[in-house]
Amino acid sequence: MSPEVTAFFDEATNTISYVVRDPKGSACAVVDSVLDFDYASGRTDTRSADAIIGFVREKGYEVQWLLETHVHADHLSAAPYIQQELGGRIGIGDNIRIVQDTFGKVFNEGTEFQRDGSQFDQLFHEGDSVHIGQLRVDVLHTPGHTPACLTYVIGDAAFVGDTLFMPDFGTARCDFPGGSSETLFASIQKILALPDETRIFVGHDYKAPGRDDYAWETTVGEQKALNVHVGSGKSAEDFVKMRDARDATLAMPKLIIPSLQVNMRAGQMPPADEQGNVYLKVPVNKL
Ligand SMILES: [Fe+2]
């Protein structure tokens, strides 16, 4: 089965969100949505999410799932906002508990912050499968970028989040707490073991030297042949050396501090004070 995939590109965070529909009906899922956030003013905006909501309403689709590939560090998830407007269940990998434990400490969250993943509607385990209408979704645990990263294999399409990027850009960084380049290499081998014609939809695109347009769709076959970090049979050892050296040069994503606090709560803001005010923390010299 080949799902109908519609991409929504957010230029501010280079994120691609997807609406994935069962071609035999109206059921769909939304993968990795974006809540716009202007850090300088502390203001949120729903422009990006509203584009998805408008599309789903216009087509008459029914949202069954809001799938997160991982706890994103570069944008806030709009899953709860889209859920409020359109319904659906919010799912993420069961290793979210590790991520909540790590960042619960970094942000000195009190005991009211549960680290058991209970903020999400469903925690997926390796090998789980669920349905979007009649379309089967198979869950692959693909950690490395973060401990909770998942790949959703939906019919002939794989939503790989931040594991593989476009072949000319390579792979995702592995230097966030709990990340591991060795683990990512092993996870990528699982994705590359899918049939060559499998369509791969990546979570981000930053263009690449010599490429003028954004792109987000490729195939397993193309990744195996051409991926600049892992293609044409590159060894785990070479990959780890390259990835770790490159990660040491990368700045933190602009929105990492607000993103982690919100996304580890399934896209909810921290609890409001008695007056209804909401605050995010900035941990000093912690990240
Ligand atoms: Fe990410």
From TrEMBL:
The keyword Secreted does not apply. CDD domains: POD-like_MBL-fold (cd07724). SUPFAM superfamilies: Metallo-hydrolase/oxidoreductase. Pfam families: Lactamase_B. GO terms for biological process: glutathione metabolic process; hydrogen sulfide metabolic process. Residues 14-204 form the Metallo-beta-lactamase domain. Keywords: Metal-binding. GO terms for molecular function: metal ion binding; sulfur dioxygenase activity. InterPro entries: Metallo-B-lactamas, Mito_Persulfide_Diox, POD-like_MBL-fold, RibonucZ/Hydroxyglut_hydro. This is Metallo-beta-lactamase domain-containing protein.
